[in-house]
Design a protein that fits this description.
Blueprint lengths: L7 H14 L6 E4 L1 H11 L7 E4 L10 H7 L4 H11 L4 E4 L3 H11 L10 E7 L5 E5 L9 H17 L7 E5 L10 H12 L4 E6 L1 H4 L7 E3 L2 H20 L12 H4 L1 E5 L4 E5 L5 H16 L2 H9 L1
Parallel strand pairs: 1-2, 3-10, 5-8, 6-7, 6-8
Antiparallel strand pairs: 4-5, 4-9, 9-10
Helix pairs in contact: 1-11, 3-5, 4-5, 6-7, 6-12
């Protein structure tokens, strides 16, 4: 319950997901019990549809990520990660402070063997109808060259397990197609990725051809660049929508459609949503968590890491 419009949008979205699923899973709501019950009354549903875990504290977007996770131990974010780590819940989805989510991922959960830092991924639409996995889109503003290799491997396993791509093509987002393009980190990352046998690396890909060509299934970048890229794409959709432009392809950039972005590289299923998420986005975020969980992604990470 850490989003901009919590708990109203979270409860409404949770109900939408529960109804849409036909009750095939149980939803735990972490937050102020009275506030959650109040929303349930306003939207005409019984709070008994959910398991409510009372959390009197809240981590805000203004809170320091690391300090808040340490100090606000009765917050919905911390309590949720603790129950995820203990196996009391199978997946955790939240719309709160991204930095705090990153801290909790690294301190409350274990990392996949061989991975130094987790990352956030998002599936974006290609013009040929395919889906393109972009990572990192926000966790790691600065990356070492070897981290790009970790992201490439994580993305490749995700593309196989969740997207159903048999032999994912992995590309490095860069300002040019040649191996010598980009800053020193990008050039070294290209060299390391070219030498790897853990995934199918096809070289650099430029931003203007990412959507218009069917060259790559997985595109790797640092979290700073990826986050700007994602927000620009979402902003373009919002401009088109505000101007009354509706197109089957452009509408696929509406963040409500994918709901949330999976965290890759940790030992459990975690999905991060927009702080301003609508009930529809919340519902899709929950359904995304179910999808990732049912694909057995975490188990496949552990198998491939051996």
């Amino acid at each position: 319950m850490g989003g901009d419009f919590a708990p109203d949008n979270e409860v409404s979205g949770a109900l939408e997901a529960l109804v849409g699923s036909g009750g095939r899973f149980q939803i735990y709501l972490f937050g102020d019990e009275k506030a959650i019950a109040g929303v349930c009354d306003r939207i005409g549903c019984s709070s008994g549809n959910f398991v409510i875990v009372h959390c009197p504290e809240k981590i805000t977007f203004a809170d320091h990520p690391a300090m808040s996770v340490t100090r606000k131990v009765r917050s919905s974010l911390v309590r949720g990660f603790e129950m995820l780590a203990s196996g009391e819940i199978d997946a955790f989805a939240g719309t709160g402070n991204t930095g705090a989510m990153m801290t909790a991922c690294c301190t409350k959960l274990s990392l996949v063997h061989g991975v130094h830092r987790p990352c956030i991924s998002v599936e974006l639409p290609g013009m040929a109808g395919q889906r393109i996995l972009l990572l990192d889109v926000g966790f790691n503003a600065e990356c070492r060259p070897e981290q790009y290799c970790h992201f490439a491997w994580l993305g490749s396993v995700y593309a196989q397990s969740v997207m159903g791509v048999k032999a994912p093509r992995v590309a490095l987002l860069n300002i040019g197609g040649e191996s010598g393009k980009g800053h020193i980190v990008a050039r070294e990352a290209h060299r390391l990725m070219s030498d790897s046998q853990d995934y199918r690396f096809i070289g650099n890909i430029e931003p203007d051809s990412l959507f218009t060509t069917d060259r790559a299934d997985v595109v790797v970048t640092d979290g700073f660049t990826g986050n700007i890229f994602l927000k620009q794409a979402e902003g373009f959709y919002e401009i088109a929508s505000a101007r009354g432009i509706h197109d089957r392809y452009i509408d696929r950039f509406n963040y409500e459609e994918y709901g949330g972005t999976p965290v890759l590289g940790v030992s459990s299923t975690v999905i991060i949503g927009h702080g301003r998420s609508t009930p529809r986005a919340i519902a899709n975020m929950i359904l995304k968590a179910e999808n990732v969980l049912n694909c057995g992604l975490i188990e496949k990470f552990n198998i491939f890491a051996r």
